[in-house]
Amino acid sequence: MTTPTKRMDRSVQRTRQLLRQASIDVMKEKGFSATSIRDIAERANVNRGTFYAHFADKYDLLEALLREEVQHLILDGLPPLSRWDKDTLCLLIQTVLEGFEKLLHACYPSPVRDALLERVIQEELAALLLAWLKQARQGTTHRQVSLETTAQVASWAIFGAAVQWSRGTTTKTSEQTAQDVLLIITEGMAPGMLRAR
């Protein structure tokens, strides 16, 4: 027998999925700017109050959609038991390089969506890297740089490389670019590159 909580959870999930799909469909037709809450609610066959019970506004819904896409992109490109090591980190970088352009040209591009997508990618990368670093830290000694700072810097390095690579200004493959970024993240700037004043 299904408990009321499980039935309600499924009902909530089903409604959220209807709203997500309706928003995608409407945004494909009208674009993000022209899409209204009323359009989404009507397409999902729910009232506006139901929409607001699940999302604060269309920006909140868009962020949820983008987070799902980014999480799927990252998780689909990595082995199930991923952790902080060179091979997995290189695979993550390459996955982001190749997936960034696809996400950028998804079905509902707009300046608002693009800016939100960039923030979501960097945040999701930082969260994943921090989780890996915390897992790798177990049993190790004190570090000079916090794990949070390490995760933030690495996420921005990966994200920045993905933005640059997606512009097509380099002849390097995603594999070559991923190797370069990996080297910078894991070994830092080459000794002797910075001159003392």
Beta strand count: 0
At CATH level 2, the architecture of the largest domain is Orthogonal Bundle
The tally of helices reads: 8
- Percent of residues in helices comes to over 70%
What is the name of the CATH topology of the largest domain?
Answer: Tetracycline Repressor, domain 2
CATH top level class name of the largest domain: Mainly Alpha
Which residue ranges are poorly predicted, with pLDDT under 50 across at least 5 consecutive positions? none
Q: Average pLDDT value? A: 85
* β-sheet strand percentage: under 5%
End-to-end C-alpha gap: 74 Å
List SSEs in N-to-C order. Answer: HHHHHHHH
The coarse overall form would be: globular
Query: What structural class is derived from the secondary structure elements?
Result: mainly alpha
Which value, in Å, is the CA radius of gyration? 20 Å
Q: Quick one: biggest sheet?
A: none
Tell me the domain tally: 2
Would you kindly provide a brief summary of this structure?
InterPro entries: DNA-bd_HTH_TetR-type_CS (IPR023772), Homeodomain-like_sf (IPR009057), HTH-type_Tx_Regulator (IPR050624), HTH_TetR (IPR001647). With 197 residues, this protein is mainly alpha-helical.
What does this structure look like?
The protein is an all-alpha fold. It has two domains: 4-55, Arc Repressor Mutant, subunit A (Orthogonal Bundle); 60-187, Tetracycline Repressor, domain 2 (Orthogonal Bundle). The protein is 72% helix and 0% strand. The chain is built from eight helices and no strands. It has helices at 4-30, 37-44, 48-54, 58-77, 86-104, 111-137, 147-166, 174-187. Helix 4 packs across helix 5 (86-104), helix 5 packs across helix 8 and helix 7 (147-166) packs antiparallel against helix 8 (174-187). The termini are far apart.
